[in-house]
Amino acid sequence: MPYPTAELRLRGAAPIHVTWTGEVPAPLVVFLGHEPRIDTPAVVLAVTNFHDASSALEWCADHGAELGGDPRRLIVAGERSAAGLVAALAREARDRGWPPIERIFVTTDRGGTMTITETYFAITRSVAAPRERVFQAWLGAEIEFREVDAPRRLVFELEDPGLAIVTLSEEGDHTVITFEGSAPADKADEVERDWAARLDALVETVAQGSQSGGNAGGIRPG
After folding, report:
1. Taking the model in full, what pTM does it have?
2. Residues paired with 7 in a beta bridge
3. Which tens digits make up the pLDDT trace of 60-93?
4. Domain residues of the chain, as ranges?
5. 21 close to 40: Cβ distance less than 8 angstroms
6. What is the pLDDT of residues 137-176, one digit of tens each?
């Protein structure tokens, strides 16, 4: 039996296709790209560009309950080709003080099934070193970055369909590293501990490099 659908019309945005994939209340999913098959209850708002995605997410944060969704459970997702936009949308939500994004998710293949079982986590570390040095330490890793915004931000894919977002900000003579990622619910604690250990090692290496004036080194991709 097909899922019920409707069109949501927001000022300044193209008509947004809404699909209910199960009982409500359910997570609100703003999806960039062709609408995926979702095998868990959700209210899915499918959009094709960043502007409409931003409008949809902002509307969900304030009015998502009108669709039967839970505004406290916001998910940003998209096709793999839209991974950079997914990351940018999650950052915008954080920067503008909208409710926290519960998960960020990228589908493996166009039109593939998206199982919403990912858990979002964020880790922060501070190191007494210039931001440029910390940024170079990240570039020294054997990671294929999807987005590079020197020296502020890096985006790359994790092993499972999901994104890691690294944001570097300056606080006095320190650099604050914010690592945002997601992992399958049954592995989330393990993945978060693993990345916390890698960040601790990176901070130690960068701090030693700053003290000696040598190379900052790089994080091991795992």
Report:
1. 0.66
2. 17
3. 999 999 999 999 999 998 887 787 788 888 888 8
4. 5-113, 121-212
5. yes
6. 999 888 889 889 999 999 888 776 567 889 999 999 999 9
The first and second tokens of residue 10, run together, are 């927001």
Given a cut of 60, whether residue 209 has pLDDT beyond it is yes
Contacts of 185 (CB under 8 A, 6+ apart): 117, 118, 119
CA distance 105 to 80: 9
The contacts of residue 129 (CB under 8 Å, 6+ apart) are 174, 175, 206, 207, 209, 210, 216
Question: What is the pairing mode between strands 113-114 and 37-38?
Answer: parallel
Is 121-212 assigned to CATH 3.30.530.20? yes
Question: Both tokens of residue 15?
Answer: 């008509």
Can you tell me which residue has the tokens 């669709």? Answer: 67
Cα dihedral value 98, 162, 80, 47, nearest 10 = -20
CATH, domain range 5-113: 3.40.50.1820
Rg of the chain in Å (alpha carbons): 19
Give the mean pLDDT of the chain.
Answer: 85
How many CB atoms are located within 10 Å of the residue 77 CB? 27
Own/partner pairs, 186-190, CB within 8 angstroms, 24+ separation: 186/117, 187/160, 188/119, 188/121
Residue type, 50: F
